[in-house]
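Per-record layout

source: Flavobacterium macrobrachii
name: SDR family oxidoreductase
length: 298
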Amino acid sequence: MNILIIGSKGFIGNHALNYFKQKNDTVYGCDVVTDYVDENYFQIDVTNSDYQIIFEKNKFDVCINCSGAASVPLSLEFPLKDFYLNTLNVFKILDAIRLHQPNCKFINLSSAAVYGNPERLPIEETFVSKPLSPYGIHKMQAEQVCNEFNHFYNLKTCSVRIFSCYGNGLKKQLLWDLYHKFQSNKTIELFGTGNETRDFIHVQDVVTALDLIIQNCTFENDIINLANAEEYKISYIAQLFSSFLNPNAEVTFNNITKLGDPLNWKADISKLEKLGYSKSISIENGVEDYIKWVQKLK
C-alpha cells in the first residue's frame, strides 16, 4: 500500500510512520517541519497549507491525518489557530482527495474531547457530542467535514476518537508533567481531586488499531473509539510515578478543575474489538517504559 501520513513529525504521526515502514508499506510523510533527507516527505506551509499538488502528483491508497493542535488551554487562548489546524485543515485535505484521488481512504484522528462530560460510562460512539472547549468543538466539526465529503462525494472516511494516548516521544500532558514534578519537588501538587479518571491507550496500540481499521473498516464515515475500556484515576497514575521515582514524595490535589477538562472517561470499544483489537501494553508497563525513555533524554 501507498500510505500518506500528514503530521508525520508529531507524536502519533511519527509512530505511525515507523510502524507502517516496518510493514514494508510505501510510506510518505507530510508536515511543516523542514526535512531534505527523505525523498518521501512533503513539506507544507504552516500558514497556508495546500495539499492539491501532493494528491495530484502522487497516488495513495490511504491518507492518515495525524496533524493538528492538541491542547485544550491553547485552544482557549488561540481559538482561530486551533480551528485552522483542527477543522479547516481537514477540509483542505479532503477537498484535494475529492478532486484528485476519490478512492483514497481517509482516517482522521479525532478526540474523546468531543464527548465532554458524558451522562454515563462507558462512552459509546452514539453519545451526543457535548465538547467543553474550542479544541473539542473543532474536532467535532472536523468529523462533520468527514461526514460531508462521505455523504455528498462518496469519499471513504473514518474518524477515530482517541482517548488518553501516551508513550515514548510525548513531551507534554500528564505523564510529562508528573515526571518533572517528581524530579524537582518533595511535595507534588496536581489539579483536581485525584478522582478524575481517564482511559489510557499506549501509542503503539493506537497505530496497531489504525492498521486494523485500514484492513477491516467500511469507511462509510465510521466513528470509532480508540481506548482500552479501562478507567484509571489520576491519583493512581501519580502513585505509579511515585513508586518508580520517589516513594517518599507527598502527592496532593488542589481541588481546582481546569476549564475544558472532563471529569471521567471510560470508552466502549466494542467497535474496535470487532476489528480485531486487543491491548498489548498495560498502563503499569507503559508508564515504567515512559519514565525510562524520559530519563534517557538527559
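summary: The two ends are 38 Å apart (CA to CA). The chain has a mean pLDDT of 95.
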